Amino acid sequence: MAVARGRSRRPLALAGAGLAALALIGLLTMMFGAVTLSPGEALSGLAGDSGLAGRVVGEIRYPRFLNAVLAGGALGVAGALLQGVTRNPLGDPAIFGLTAAAGLAAAAAIAASPQIPPWGVALAAVGGGLGGAGALFAAASRESVSPMRLALAGVALSALFGAVIVALLSSSRTFLQTNLGFLAGGLYGADWADLRAVLPWAAPALAAALALAGRLNLLSLGDDVATGLGVLADRTRLAVLAVAGVLTACAVAVAGLAGFVGLLSAHAARHAVGADHRALVPASALAGAILVSAADLVAKLVISPSELPMGIVTAAAGAPFLLYLVRFRV
Amino acid sequence: MRLAVERLTLRYNGREAVRDVSLDLAGGEFVAIVGPNGSGKTTLLRGMSRLLRPAAGQVLLDGREIRAIGARGVARRLAVLTQLHEEGPDLTVGELVWRGRAPHQGLLQRARPADREAVAHALRAADLEPLAGRPLASLSGGERQRAWIALALAQQPRVLLLDEPTTFLDVRHQVEVMALLRRLNEGGMTVVAVVHDLTLAGRFMRRAIGMRDGEVAFDGPPREVFRPDVLERVFGVPMDVLEDPASGLPVPLPRAPAEGGASP
User: Fold this and answer.
1) Full 3-state SS string of chain B
2) Rg of the Cα trace of chain A?
3) Which of A151, A231, A257, B8 has its CA 20 to 30 A from that of A101?
């Protein structure tokens, strides 16, 4: 007898539609900015045109777009992991304090050494993200770690680290002025060096997230059932939090403290593919990449030639969505 | 597969719920753990299935300390079903049962023919084949209980431990679940269940372990240990034990207090 393993929700069609949307956003990102390019110019710039289009696209817009994709993908996966591990629909790296922990470490590193290279910022952010994940786990564990305590501890840590960041930045006026984009979340000036600095962290963390997906499925059946099926519940939670911390740190290192991305992406992905984390993790990555690249495009265009921090756009989209969740779903 | 408990002490909510208990379950036994509320039955079952870390003593699976075997290794030999809680996950019966294959699968949980066979077999054994595509939430209580048992069966365990598998079920579903457990036992599986209903335990199971205040008060075939004086001492109520004329099995029956008067 054949037994279906899961409800198929047209995963290939959805993935194709998502990738097409991402490609369209990418094309628009290559076309619009201080100089407007035609689609043909944008594509020839992407292909390595040696003229103005090639420089604008190859050195500015294309790396910035890739940074947006990476930051969004990382935040989307972090959101899916946190919602899975806390069994809480409000799971999000910003709400649970990981964004603030990574941001605090990055801000401290920049404040201590303003000429720090991108790989140094990434390293500091990853240290902060892992520290935040560890603090979250420690604060939430008593005999074992309950999803509810994780959520409450996360909110407390987020407030604490956020306060320290602002205190740190307040002591340096110029730093505050030049880093509004960091505080609010933005991709201004994100380049190839930024991308190279976080890729060595993001790639293994994404692979680890996929590898943990099956165990997250079992953990969602409750600790007793998961233990009975051979999952070490607390060790899995610690691993999931650590991976979420690294992914959040990658996003913070290139895009600052953008909120709501993980929350929105993971919910959208769950709506599209269901609750199986083996599908949910990649779907959340795609949703996050679409969200952040689209938000960055909007942020760049809405008050052109000046630009908004990207995080303002995700917050503007995310806050109403959060209210909707609170009102109708939680 | 032999499951042994050696001088096991378990703490639950800060107190010693099980004190210095030793038991030896040979392969293929069909065992009821009975006792009043708070006597430590559930705690003992959780300790035996490594859901609870011992405060002292050890649990041995075929002579090896259960914590030394490794979580997945234990899960391939021993399955545990705790009391059903809430409405359950948003899954179909088939999806739930597939998750029982996790201890046999690799990291990405790719399905192999052996997995398909084990899932089909578990669904067949629990009589759930026609319901495989149904959401758990749409099942009756008895069907849902059998779906969780099928999840445990997909693990292909040699030992199955259950906490009150018949509680909250009507009598027909109670008998269905007990008959399923008996079939599994007859196939060679060791089955241990915490049960509240002494009649069901006496009717179906071949060994009854009585718990009282965290210690073993009696242990033996129901026909021998279900005696009025023994049951009264353990449960604190006067009991009669009738004999089923057809099978000769014991039928424990609490004695009602005299009408209008308090018990002596």
Assistant:
1) CCEEEEEEEEEECCEEEEEEEEEEECCCCEEEEECCCCCCHHHHHHHHCCCCCCCEEEEEECCEEHHHHCHHHHHHHEEEECCCCCCCCCCEHHHHHHHCCHHHCCCCCCCCHHHHHHHHHHHHHCCCHHHCCCEHHHCCHHHHHHHHHHHHHHCCCCEEEEECCCCCCCHHHHHHHHHHHHHHHHCCCEEEEECCCHHHHHHHCCEEEEEECCEEEEEECHHHHCCHHHHHHHHCCCEEEEECCCCCCEEEEECCCCCCCCCC
2) 20
3) A231
pLDDT in the model for residue A144: 62
Q: Which of A224, A230, A278 comes nearest B72 by C-beta?
A: A230
Residue B248 touches partner A, C-beta closer than 8 Å? no
Is residue A27 in some structural domain?
no
Please check whether residue B16 touches A, CB under 8 A. Answer: no
ipTM of the complex: 0.89
Q: Which residues of A touch B94 (CB under 8 A)?
A: 3-5
CATH code for position B208: 3.40.50.300
The conformation of residue A309, written as its DSSP 8-state character, comes to: -
In a domain, B121, yes or no: no
Chain A nearest C-alpha distance from B188 (Å): 20
CATH number at residue A209: 1.10.3470.10
* Closest C-alpha to A222, from B153, B24, B89: B89
* Contact between chains at B124 and A217 (C-beta distance less than 8 A): no
Mutate to test the interface with B, among A224, A236, A281 (most CBs of B within 10 A): A224
B66 domain residue, yes or no: yes
Q: How many domains does chain B have?
A: 1
In a domain, A161, yes or no: yes
Q: Are A1 and B123 a contacting pair at CB < 8 A?
A: yes
pTM of the model: 0.87
Interface check for B103 against chain A (CB to CB < 8 A): the answer is: yes
Q: Does the distance separating the beta carbons of B49 and A1 come in below 8 Å?
A: no
- What is the spatial distance between Cα B37 and Cα B54, in angstroms, rounded to a whole number? 21
Out of B109, B132, B133, whose CB is closest to A214?
B109
- Of the candidates A1, A3, A221, the beta carbon closest to that of B99 is on A221
Domain that holds residue B40: 3-90+157-254
* B105 found inside a domain: no
B100 CA: distance to closest CA in chain A (Å): 7
Let me know how long chain A is.
330
Q: How many domains does chain A have?
A: 1
- CB pair distance less than 8 Å for B71 and A224: no
Does residue A15 fall inside a structural domain? Answer: no
Range of the domain at A289: 63-328
Residue A7 lies in a domain: no
Closest CA of chain A from B51, distance in Å:
7
* Mean pLDDT in consecutive groups of 10 residues from the start of chain A, 330 residues: 49 91 96 90 88 90 96 97 87 91 92 88 96 90 71 88 84 62 82 95 97 93 92 92 97 91 92 90 97 94 85 87 73
| Phi, psi (rounded to 5 degrees) for B13 | 55, 40
